[in-house]
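Is it possible to get an amino acid sequence alongside its tokenized fold?
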Amino acid sequence: MSENPSPSKATRLLSRGTWREASYVADLLRTETVGGAILLLAAVAALVWANSPWRDAYATLRDTVVGPSSLHFDLSLGTWAADGLLAVFFLVAGIELKREFVAGDLSDRRKAALPVAAAVCGVLLPAVLFVVTVLALTRGDSSADVGGMLRGWAIPTATDIAFALAVLAVIGTHLPSSLRSFLLTLAVVDDLIAITIIAVFYTETVKFLWLLAAVVPLAAWRLLLKRKLTNPLLLAIPALLAWMFVHNSGVHATVAGVLLGLLVPVHREAEDDPNRHSLAERLEHRIRPFSAGFAVPVFAFFAAGVTVVGGGFAGAVTDPVAIGVVVGLVAGKAIGVFGGTWAVARFTRAELDEDLSWTDVFGLSVLAGVGFTVSLLVGELAFGGGSERDDHVKLAVLAGSLIAALLATGVLRLRNTHYRDVHARETEDRDLDGIPDVYEQPR
């Protein structure tokens, strides 16, 4: 009986991509890593201020109302950060999602199966474990508002790519390019699922006339980009109008950001040409630094400022919702992402790339439990910003993300020597042509 043939390149999971893909991912991740560091500083600053003798000043700043009431824009600074600045974050996510569907891994159904399966499982299992945990902890307690608690089921489902990359930067691991690319694609699909959940499950009433009116500025945005009219002031007009109309429709305003991003024209031939910078790439490179370096950190500053002193921590550790969030982020994400990846390998009879092991996949799966930006947003939508339960959720998201980061650090550092060897091969350029030799050799 003959032996089974070794898997071909087509049947390898998480294999190294092209130099064009690797260089694009490297540039993008550098921006996100810097943004992640700023995000961490903003979150720490908020926590320190909210637990200092001047905590009332922090609350006053966060709750200061700015904007005209006649247009329904009399919002607190915290709400402006959540509804306005996060729309920029989702605009970038929308552009990245469009590029992935047209020219990235998601354009190939065989390649897309892995990150999609991992992302979907990484959303479903945390939600299930959250529900199971809440039901188990409230069993027999007739006074518990179980229905209200379960509104938070989506909190532990999101991965914060900037936060996760900041963790990688801190631990100093030389993660192979294929794993970094997988983490990015996973986060992109995760963002799409997250915004869909927000639009469908956290929208109480919809004013369809306002939603219909948003079609006009969205169409104008698309037309301007099709004609390559990319002046920032010109593009800002339809973008702001679309955001205003979606906000007044009752749908969360961040949805406007995703719609704008998905309407950015993407042409595969331009994306594949290493000598060209496509319109989508140029637009993304303009907006991403503002998103990663300002918009998300400002949101984090207003969202992460929870008071721990005075009983806040004690209340959180006994709250079934907070416990469910931690279980979902730490166990649900790790098992879900790892299980989804393993299932694809099992049912397609594929094997991991020769440079990787299942330990690497597990470490990355644990890292996916670092949730922050979208988790905090969903917590506010589920329980109301500034409420006692929302404060418990904030502490749970911070605690769960910290535990996931520490566990991922422990797992990934076990293979750091191997990662350095892979990194050395992926960066060696003996012929000095600007392209590492490994990307010019058949695998």
